[in-house]
Amino acid sequence: MLTFQNENIEWLVRKAENRENARFKIDRELKQSAQILKPVSLVYLYIRIKFIMYARMKLCEKKGMIKKLCVRVCSNNLYQIDSAKPKPFENIPGPRSLPVIGTLYKYVPFIGEYNFTKLHTNGLLKLKRYGPLVREEIVPGQPIVWVFRPEDIEKVFKAESGLHPKRRSHLALLKYRKDRSNVYNSGGLLPTNGTEWWRLRREFQKVLSKPRNVVDYLEDTDAVVQKFVRICSREKPNDFLPLFSHLFLELICLVAFDVKMGSLSEEEKHPHSRSSRLIEAALTTNSAILKLDNGLMFWRFFETPLYRKLRKAQNYMEEIALQMVTQKNQDASICRKQSLLEEYLKNETLDVKDIVGMACDTLLAGIDTTTYSLSYALYHLARNTNVQEKLRLEAATLLTDPMSPMTAEILRNAIYTKAVLKETFRLNPLSVGIGRILQTDVVLSGYHIPKGTVVVTQNQVICRLPEYFDEPNSFRPERWLRDNDVTKLKEKFINPYAVLPFGHGPRSCIARRFAEQNLQIILLRSYIDQTSKTLIIRINEHKNHDEEKILQKRLIASALCLTADEIEAQRSGWNLNPNTQYHIQTDEGPERFFRFQTSNGQYRKEKRLADGTVIGTEGWLDPLGYLRLKDYIADHEGFRILKSKMVYVGKDRPIQDALAEAKKIPAQTGILARPKRPPNPFRRPDSNAIVPLSGNDITSSYYAPTTIRPRPISRNNYYSNRPGYPSELQSLDVYHRPDAMYYREPAARPPTQILEAPYDPAIGSSSLKPSYQSPSVSQNDFPLYDGTHTTANGFQYYLRRQYHEEEREPEGNNVGSFGYIDPFGIRRVIYYKTDPFSGGFLHKKNNRYVGFNATPYDPLPPDLSRTRLSRALPTSAS
Ligand code: HEM
């Protein structure tokens, strides 16, 4: 044992000596050659280097390393390979496959260098290591060839001409559907191959890919998109992705099944709603597909946990698809126009089982694809404000009137919008490449590829290579503009096989036209919406998902309406622009104050006076664009709201502008406010009314002694808005009634009741209006009642369908009215007056059918002077 060890050691020492000697020898030779080289001319050197390179190439070729050398040495003509004498398939370089486990060990998390969730990164690694054609056996005996040259991709597609292109994907889905032969005839379009695929494809594409059909749905699509844009600018959720998914589900169901899912409604956003569950089911299936397609397919023999997930998700999709198909089959009368589903049902070569399969495919392939494409497009736009500007310009040029409908003509001319989408697809295609099963032998990059081999093109990797695109990582839609006069850029020729976001040939995406049309409309509509300044998407989360054909990444996008520079600020929760935010404070001296305003719409100032009274104003701009401002006081009588305003100033208005706007507007409630009230036959002019205060400025002398009373004046403008009195007061309703349209639409109602100002037709056309007029908004845009109802000498509140107002007259009697719209649309108003001396309560009712859209108070009440008034007993007085 010992001898053996000694021998071993001796052997090792000898080897080390030899290596040392060898190294020494090489060093010496190098030194000698350096000496020799000194006098040698450059030409000699050049020839020698070329010779050495050639020799190395020959050597490496022998070892199967030709690609590696190509990458290193011939970087100019990277992939110039002679295909005259094809080399054998087995010689294609690639990761080493081990018996039984193939190359799966390379995908093991933390240990392996590849990752199933990052196919494009794997692709780039393989390209760098092995060259433009890579052979890999993830599962032993099932070679896949990754193709990195557009010229090779062209050959793959040309080889399938005249044949039915075959794809190897969605294998688990195929099994699921085959197991349920009572529901499906076949695996459906996605996984099926051969003549069965063509039977389905031929019939479905007649309907789904026909340009005329696509255009027919433009109007419906536009209506949904407009609603979506309104929701976007109103809600600004942290995560826009679910909203996008709901939008596309709505569009798909509308077009494909003529079903209005109402996916954008509040109820459907609930996680247990039909829409949310469908979206989840599609995502679960898409996420499971790749893992089930690759790797060891135990699910073929028993139900693995992942397969179970897919099965459950598919069960749900199938249930909904069945419902829709059956309903349409039974009752064709519910459709407004020919839906795709209806056209399928009329087709005699298709039976219901085929159609259910197609309905499921549509739900499966139609939601995530467009959702993520839109996310990527908005993400790139957010980072490129110059592109946004161009897009906005194009939108404004094509849609001069934002309310005008979207037409096919507009979409045709939206050249820049199309370029934005193309560029998005270049940088973030939804599919890493296109997979095919070869049906003939082909030669790719000089290698023979036999029929039956699975090849997957690597377009996503190609699209980011400098060999094929100038500035490959920049988002430059201009590269797609044909006559690029503006920038005069000399773009590289773009090989059409480099960018294939929808695949190629007869097997390409069946709904490409629909998807592109939807995305174009969304971009144009988003940018024509003048209220959204800049469209922005922030990456919140960048989760990777694992679908072979559909998704590689999950991008969670959020926060519209900021500039790109504000991304960081938004993340930190603060706008760092010093001009819009401040906080000043002094804690010295008898009077102390602080004052601050933030860029996200908050404002407060407060002053503590020498006698301990605190006065202040607080304001905030709510998400709907209403500034809510309250002047308050806290003194020996306690805390009270002096004046309160709720003024529509427009969304995202800088707080300082909003405050300036609000100054023009009289207070609506609060103990100092003298609001207008609806006409009341019991009311009479009061010459001792106080003047409403002009503002709560901490420099205002009003607050110096807190006990001062408001100054009485002789002439009272307050009553002048009533008939017979010239008005100098302005109508409040132009400020805080966002849109009269609300009253025109009886079907939809706000979720809660609304504060509403009295409307007086006599002064409805006030000349003084704020510069920010309310946009057309839906009911949901209305502010909630803010709860402040005390006024200088009474109270008032106005809700959507009811109101109550009362004021105390100088003699001590109370005059008021209350009313409501009853469920039959009858307005029921009671005018009343109390008599402090007799304790009586005079009242008169005024009931009239006015419909649901009318105000709860009567702007023109009947003349009650000649009618008999009811007198209630003092005990029943209010
Ligand atoms: C931006 C959106 C979309 C992208 C990027 C996209 C991309 C793709 C790609 C790459 C393929 C494979 C093509 C091939 O093998 O050559 C495909 C196939 C398919 N897509 Fe889309 N797609 C999108 C939207 C949609 C929508 C909205 C639907 C549903 C109505 C849909 C339904 C299908 C179907 C059924 C197939 C299989 C076609 C067949 O094998 O014959 N796709 N899509």
From TrEMBL:
Positions that bind heme = C509
Q: Sorted alphabetically, which InterPro entries does this protein's record hold?
A: CYP11_CYP27_families, Cyt_P450, Cyt_P450_CS, Cyt_P450_E_grp-I, Cyt_P450_sf, Insect_cuticle
Sequence segments annotated as region (Disordered): 855-878
**Any one GO molecular-function label of the UniProt entry:** monooxygenase activity
> Which cofactors, if any, are listed as required?
heme
Gene3D superfamilies on file: Cytochrome P450 (1.10.630.10)
Q: Which UniProt keywords apply?
A: Cuticle, Heme, Iron, Metal-binding, Monooxygenase, Oxidoreductase
Supply the Pfam families for this chain: Chitin_bind_4, p450
The similarity annotation says: Belongs to the cytochrome P450 family.
Q: Please report the name of this protein according to its UniProt entry.
A: CP302 protein
Organism the protein comes from:
Pseudoatta argentina
